[in-house]
Amino acid sequence: MNTSTFFAAATPLTRMHVVWDWNGTVKDDLDDHVSALNATLPALGGEAVDRETYRAKHTVPIPNFYARLLGRTITEQEWLSSDNAFLDHLRAQPVRVRDGAIELMAALREAGHTQSLLSLCPHDTLVREVEEAGIGHFFTRIEGRTGPSGGTKAAPLTAHLEALGLTEQAHRVLLVGDAVDDADAAHANGAHAVLHTGGLHHPAKLAAAGHPLTDTLTDAVALGLRLVQNHGAQLACA
Predict the structure, then answer these.
(1) Residues 6 or more apart whose Cβ sits within 8 Å of residue 80
(2) Is 46 in contact with 62 (CB distance < 8 Å)?
(3) CA-based Rg of the chain, rounded to a whole angstrom?
(4) How far apart are CA 167 and CA 44, in angstroms?
């Protein structure tokens, strides 16, 4: 792979930090999520869904997703039981990294950009899956959820950037994800975000939100790099 095809060598003024989302982005697991959800719905009185329904109705916090599917709010106990069953089912599936993701990460590293991984899946699960995929060496920080499930990514991203020492340099951070919540979290922290259409959320829903959107991870990173560098040029001229 000729990395110059994708990215010129970074300089101190053009260097970018990419925060990768895991489920639905680096990890190609839409079908696993649909299967895991369908394993939990009967106990709640729900019916199985297909991929299109999953993607169209998926939202965070996840209890709201169940409410959309069931037409009612689930109880705290139902949420805890369903979430545990969902995660157990998901953990049993093999880890599949999205096509081209490893080459893309290698190209970013060769060009001098840095990368980390932030997910709302349980931290121990994330670490195990990254190890299974053999891609941990690309990341300066790997961070999954350590508290209760069902939240959004804004606060975890705040802590993630603080741990990386990037809070004051959030303008050079790009978050690549597959959900509107990913973009909302980035913008809440002063970072950039580009979403891709191949994940857990329906492309029409992502397009309607108005955030930068591409069909592939490579295009997402290329667009994000332009956004980061244009912002940097504006700051330099201010």
Answers:
(1) none
(2) no
(3) 18
(4) 42
Beta carbons within 10 angstroms of residue 92's beta carbon: 10
Helix (H) / strand (E) containing 120: strand 114-122
Name the residue among 160, 228, 143 with its Cα closest to residue 193: 228
| pLDDT, tens digit, 9 for 90 and up, residues 8-66 | 888 887 899 999 999 999 999 999 999 999 999 999 999 999 999 999 999 888 899 99
Do residues 225 and 3 touch, judged by C-beta distance below 8 A? no
Measured in residues, the chain has a length of 238
Instruction: Indicate the residue type of 105.
Output: M
Evaluate if pTM is beyond 0.85.
Answer: yes
Core vs surface per residue 22-39: b (16+ CB within 10 A) or e: bbbbbbbbbebbbbbbbb
Q: Measured between alpha carbons, how far is 54 from 2 in angstroms, rounded to an integer?
A: 37
Torsion region of 19: left, alpha or beta (phi above 0 gives left; psi -120 to 50 gives alpha): beta
Q: How far apart, in whole angstroms, are the C-alpha atoms of residue 189 and residue 48?
A: 37
Q: What is the DSSP letter of 41?
A: G
> Which residue is it, tokens 């195990």?
128
Residue matched to tokens 């009185």: 45
Where on the phi/psi map is residue 225: left (φ > 0), alpha (ψ -120 to 50), or beta?
alpha
Amino acid at residue number 153: K
